[in-house]
Specification:
The protein is an alpha/beta fold and 474 residues long. The protein folds into 2 domains: 86-116 and 390-472, Aspartate Aminotransferase, domain 1 (Alpha-Beta Complex); 138-373, Type I PLP-dependent aspartate aminotransferase-like (Major domain) (Aspartate Aminotransferase, domain 2), CATH 3.40.640. Helices cover 45% and strands 12% of the residues. α10 (232-240) packs parallel to α11 (264-276). It binds ligand PGU. The site of ligand PGU has 16 residues, from α8.
Length: 474
């Protein structure tokens, strides 16, 4: 299995790729290149990844021309590998086994293993349908104004000084991914330092999103595989040696894939260090409410950075906490020092968004706004959200107990210590592929399992598979 298929393309790999000049199609730019040249170069390198370019020049496998290809102007196009995370679902769908289990994608499932549409979402949608005055006109470039305001309050807190002083601009984007991408492009165009530090490991899409946004991706140590906890010393050392002004990507809570978050005291040390070195914090908040079951608690890290009056960026997703995965609803907030700066920043965000997708979709944002504006619906949402978080915590305990009952070799206490949607099991690539082959259990190759995909009736199957994997496969 090559690294590109492991779901864990490290930032170092990205830097290495960036330094590699494939020389293919003559796409390479010197360090004095303009931002748009650099973006084009990054795009070319992304499309011509080392694995793919090697296979077309050396083995000729991917570029082989079959008779049906002849005459196509696209016959040279190499088949790209499936996405390391979403590709797991593709493989799962092809499996006809009745015991198959998809623990790959981070998407909530009920005890019955079914996707869940929250009751509160159904109610909000009904309200929208019943309201005949609603139309399907284009939204403004920055999206639904009420959604933006309410999203900012959700992450920063209703009484946040940045909202009170109008120092934050919030724009509706295409879920968390789109918010990260728009934020990345804005920084490439308007921020003096184009280096972004991302944790190792991190969500597999981060390096791609930021590279294609035109930023240069570097990494900081985050996870210690020995302790299966935070490598705080490594994190501090790496951020301490970052150049002044560098952007730092931080998972607001429920770190993906490790399930390991800094303590509040550690967050405070990270904050002090980031501020004293003049680094720029960029939070990815994809799991607010999923770590602890409490929306305010899960926003604490972000709020600490806003409370000190400094600047920061936040990408918010409503995919998980409202179960609106396919509605693609999220928000990008940029907290500035003054209202005047925030206004100018917003005017430039519009210039990033307009040629990218013009303006965002209306339906998902309307659902979120309907829930956040109404006290009764909001309270109902928090109860449903807590129930999802609690079910995941219960699955952690059930899996831990099942492995203990089987006397499975190893210390599995990290299953109950880690938080959020995922357990970073420590299983290696060979053990993961054994579990898929022999037990029809699908998960990412880095050993991450989505606890949200597990239920009381499937725990024993997973525990049997893990037990067999660690006892039979090195
Ligand atoms: N940021 C982090 C840390 C994430 O884990 C995810 C989703 C996102 C952003 C993007 O979420 P949006 O759906 O764009 O709001 N990660 C999940 C979902 C599958 C995927 O890879 O997109 C995961 O399984 O890791």
């Amino acid at each position: 299995m090559n690294k590109a298929c492991s779901g864990q393309i490290s930032a170092r790999d990205v830097s290495e790729r960036k330094e590699m000049n494939c020389g293919i199609h003559g796409v390479s730019f010197s360090s004095s290149a303009t931002p748009s040249e650099r973006r084009l170069s990054a795009l070319a390198r992304h499309l011509i990844s080392p694995t793919e370019s090697c296979s077309c020049s050396a083995s000729g496998v991917s570029a082989s021309i079959t008779s049906s290809d002849v005459g196509s102007v696209f016959s040279h196009v190499a088949r790209a590998p499936e996405d390391p995370i979403l590709g797991v679902t593709v493989a799962y769908n092809k499996d006809s086994s009745p015991v198959k289990l998809n623990l790959g994608v981070g998407a909530y499932r009920t005890e019955e293993g079914k996707p869940l549409v929250l009751n509160v979402v159904r109610k909000a949608e009904q309200q929208l349908v019943n309201n005949r005055s609603r139309v399907k006109e284009y939204l403004p470039i920055v999206g639904l104004a009420e959604f933006n305001k309410l999203s900012a309050k959700l992450i920063f807190g209703v009484d946040s000084p940045c909202i009170r002083d109008n120092r934050v601009t919030t724009v509706q984007c295409l879920s968390g991914t789109g918010s990260l991408r728009v934020g990345g492009e804005f920084l490439t165009r308007h921020y003096h330092q184009r280096i972004i530090y991302i944790p190792v490991p991190t969500w597999g899409n981060h390096p791609k999103v930021f590279t294609l946004a035109g930023l240069s991706v570097k990494s900081y140590r985050y996870y210690d595989p020995i302790t299966r906890g935070l490598d705080f010393k490594g994190l501090v050392e790496d951020l301490d040696s970052a150049p002044s002004g560098a952007i730092v990507l931080l998972h607001a809570c429920a770190h993906n894939p490790t399930g390991v978050d800094p303590s509040i005291q550690q967050w405070e040390q990270i904050r002090q260090m980031i501020r004293s070195k003049g680094l720029l914090p960029f939070f990815d908040s994809a799991y607010q409410g999923f770590a602890s079951g409490n929306l305010d608690k899960d926003a604490q890290s972000v709020r600490m950075f806003v409370a000190d009056g400094g600047e920061c960026i936040v990408a918010q997703s409503f995919a998980k906490n409202m179960g609106l995965y396919g509605e693609r609803v999220g928000a990008l907030s940029i907290v500035c020092k003054t209202a005047d700066v925030a206004g100018k920043v917003e005017s430039q965000l519009k210039l990033v968004i307009r040629p990218m997708y013009s303006n965002p979709p209306i339906h998902g944002a309307s659902i979120v706004a309907a829930i956040l504006r109404d006290r009764t619906l909001y309270d109902e949402w928090t109860i449903e959200l807590k129930a999802m978080a609690d079910r995941i915590i219960s699955m952690r305990h059930q899996l831990f107990n099942a492995l203990r009952d089987r006397d499975t070799p190893g210390d599995w206490s990290h299953i109950i210590k880690q938080i959020g949607m995922f357990t970073f099991t420590g299983l290696n690539v060979r053990q993961v592929s054994f579990m898929t082959r022999e037990y029809h259990i699908y998960m990412t190759a880095d050993g991450r399992i989505s606890m949200a995909g597990l239920s009381s009736s499937t725990v024993s199957h997973l525990a049997d598979a893990i037990h067999a994997a660690v006892t039979h496969v090195a």
